[in-house]
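Fold these two proteins, one after the other.
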Amino acid sequence: MTEPERLETMQPREQEPVTNQFAVGYVPGVMPGKWFRRWEDRRHKPALSQYPVRADSWREALTSGEIKACFVRLEWEGQDPSLEELRQEFRAVALYEELQVVVLDKDHILTVAETLTTDELTAESEPQKKPVTDEADMAVELTAAGVGPVILPMSVARLHHRKDVTYRELTDAPTIPVVLVWPQDLNEEDEAAVQQFVGIVRGRSANSGRDTPPSQDKKAQEDKKKKQPQKQQPKAQQRRGGKGPRGAKAASASKNARRRRPR
């Protein structure tokens, strides 16, 4: 089964529309597992559902409400917008830049190099036409068969890795932006969930006030006050001869001196 077919089988096509869950999608190659785990570890509500989507259908999944947000790769597919163009229709935050690599068969002469430039690649062989993400597995299979190298985003190359191919970074190729996208017209509850998830993706700690529900934040402040030691009142300075260790000693000495005085 090819990757596009596998992804199709993972889509919740026969399920009822997702209404009581926070569904987050991701295109092939993107690996948001660490952020999903942080959401679950912090026991955020609502429950988060992970939805792999095809690279050519994330727009439809967002606008239909099937998912509330999606990890998307820009400027790779022919129809991909720039970040500025994307923000005219959706809300989006830039996450990181992904390297481009060339996938080579294991016996290719260029595997002796640790990295390559585009000129070095084309001087030795003719790469395949750049494939769309959803057909990348077929391009890698052709590379393994000796048809020619193929240039891919690094995460896509890793997704379709096999024993008879390897890859090398293209040092002069532009990087590919990866962003988190969500609709502009989400209701208040869904928008709040997305903003909380954005905080996790951006590295906000669990103790951050912006990442803590108000009820939990108030309770944490009350617990902190209870743990603080009460300030002790300063002791009043005792007079000489008064009560206390020093005063008692002085009074005793004075009394003994009067007894010994001759008459």
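Now the second one:
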Amino acid sequence: MRKIIALLSLSLLFNCGNSNESLTVKGHIKGLKKGTIYLKKANDSTVVTLDSVTVHGEAPFELKSSIDEPQILFLYLDKNDAKENRISFFADQGATEIETTLKNFASDAKIKGSKQQDILNDYLSMTSKFNEKGLALITEKFKALNVNDTTLAKEKEDAFNNLERRKYLYTTNFALNNKNSEVAPYLALTELYDANIKLLDTINNALTKEVKSSLYGKNLQEFIDKIKTSEN
């Protein structure tokens, strides 16, 4: 239930007004023959297009939009197939560069741009190791179950649960250590939405005044208020 509230709150606050400040997204997709690239953002319960361009071959692309404060945007690639190709990134005023491949559109993406994206890159670099280890433990658990080794399966399950707790703790500490960045409330909303309300309060209270008044800072405060209201 908390995740639903968090996502609804996020989508409402994604709907930002226009600004004279410009965002430019430049990039290159290795291996692309032809496709349409879209720059999008969440808007209430839908995703709206901010700009688009059709690319032939591996030519560089450029997209533009107005943006008035840091927020998560999405880069979509449409190749006229059923596969969804999407990259999310922390956008801000100025230029963002995205280099990736057609084969692994999301996982190969290298993103340079906002200071928020740099911080998010650091977080994702570490959590990708948690995720890889988690997938390995899940695979090992099912292999053990296939040969009826319940003792080994339980061992792998316990190891996975311990890994998840470590990832949770890492995310909490990362948010607190980056209390002066919009990434902190964003992670609280997307990665720690089911945390104890006291933990969310701790992160919220640690945020700097500027971050508290940002898109995700206000979003986090509203999320916490809704939880407290529902628990009363």
